[in-house]
Amino acid sequence: MPSWLSSVPIETMRTLAIVYAIAVVLLIALVLPFGVVARRRARWYAALGLAALAGAGIGWGLVWLLGDVDDLFGVQLTTVVHLAGAGLFAGLAVAVVNLVRTRWWRKAIAVVAIPAVLLGAGVMINEDFAYYPTLGDVVGDTGVGALVAGSIRASAEPLSRWRPPADMPTEGSLGTVRIPGTVSHFAARDAWVWLPPAALVKDPPRLPVVVGLSGQPGQPSDLFLAGHLDTALDAVARAHHGVAPILVVPDQLGSPSSNPMCVNSRLGNVRTYLTVDVRHWILAHEPVSVNRRDWTIAGFSEGGTCAIQLGAGYPAMFGGIVDVSGELAPRNGTVAQTIARGFHHSKAAYRAAAPLHLLATHRYPRTTAAFAVGGDDQRYRPIMVRMSAAAAAAGMTVQRWAVPGTAHDWHTASQGLAWGIGRLVPLWGLPR
């Protein structure tokens, strides 16, 4: 795909207005009775009206059934998604009516209207979830290549007194890297890694680390393309002489449709992958601090569940936790299915891995945790309140934020992750 086409934004009001306008104009052309004899116009409008109403009802009903009843997506779908479903099927119904016993030009308009209506509904839902910023992101053309690594020969100067050399880059570097499952044998997709300017010089300081995790379905790129964490960390670097945490986003899923739940099971030894293989790779390849205070695990949705799960399970490894819209416990289907798939049918193993159990049975006086959730997220907001209260009761230093006007989407993820990491910046002793 040409770069100019790949970079076309699909979340801006200009793009949305153009797509919506094309779909509306085509549908208006299909509704107007051009070529319909006068005595049949009443029947024509009746057929279109009934088709549109039936289509809207079917579309709304399907979203309700799949999202609210079957809980296929694991989130509460917004009114915008319901309206998109209703509008999609209403538009398709109008187009189909125009394909039956009509003139050739009306059929031609109907054929063009079908993809236009599909596209309109698609960008409407995408804007609501804030998932794909550009056209290239939709087809996987991210423009991000292999990581250009810096030096691992770290400076002996304390981080708070380190000063950048004159040739330090002004922005960080983003790239992909293969982190092998040497111990876990987990077949992970490429990780995405962001290096701050301070990591790209000859003698970098030992930097903090953030291990970030996407939601499910998802991939490591989500935290950058939809979550914009590299932009947020560039701002941290500009305020601290090029110093910011190294952000490593490994793949904890294996594929978009998989959910190994960050445990060791027949679905994959993900816990070992994240706590052994990924950690060893970071220590071997990047100039990082070994102090637990400087290590944070962060994630959104399923990744948020993993963050509190592993942060509470490995307090000697992680001093910071950022949980954005995480769940109460690992989940892969129903509770019974989760126990069967991820815990070898052991209820005891399932309970032991649940963050609430860990928080109830251990103390965390040296851990800082930030919890965020969409202010309009009726399903996950009570979970955040309960989980953060349990973390505080377990001795963690806790901060909470309900992101105004957002739900379980990447508006929440991008703002919540940036906010949560920002709460930890003062603990890292970055230079001023």
UniProtKB/TrEMBL annotation:
GO terms for molecular function: acyltransferase activity, transferring groups other than amino-acyl groups. The chain crosses the membrane at residues 15-37, 44-67, 73-96, 108-125. It comes from the Bacteria. Coiled coil: none annotated. Keywords: Membrane, Transmembrane, Transmembrane helix. Pfam families: Esterase (PF00756). This is Esterase. It comes from Amnibacterium setariae.
